[in-house]
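Why does residue order matter? Because the sequence determines the fold. Keep that principle in mind as you read this record.
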Amino acid sequence: MSFEKENIPSGVGGNMADVKKSGYLKKLKTMRKKFFVLRGESSTGPARLEYYDNEKKFRTGSLTKRTIYLRSCFNINRKSDGKNKCALALYTRDDCFAMVADDEETLSEWLQALLEQQQAGLDGAPVPAFGKCLSSQLSTYGKLWWKPKGLGSSKNLSGNYRLCLTSTTINLVKMNCENEDWEFSVSQITSNVGMCCMCNTCI
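Structure:
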């Protein structure tokens, strides 16, 4: 089941009842400004981030350019980018959507608001298999291709995975697949250093 959809109508006049934050940010991929709207969970749907070409299109009820449900994100965090110091990203199973703020204060405000709505949206709901990565402040993310040998063979780990590395665990989230997620403790990994030879990483 995908939590990410395209072209969802905002409602006539731009429904503001569940809007928690809005404003202009740049898409990292194109560096073009878009109008972003953060919605909290309500009768209109789960907590989500939408964006439009501009504020006018939002106010007049145009279709969103994209909507990302926060529950589908296994982490929302700052993104390391050599050219843009004020970047943040929403990591989903199959994608990494990144935005750039004009300054550190704006970045911090958006990051805090996104994390608050993500956690509120999970309150009382089933946590995704990769839930332990949620909002971790000591995490590294990337993608890797696991070779079908050694641990990869015994655990049937071959294929493309997203990697979430925290101070205590390594979580593997299989891309394009809902039910093949794995978690290893750091002690498990350090006791099998040969594991590093079984995967090609691309952080």
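The chain has a mean pLDDT of 75.
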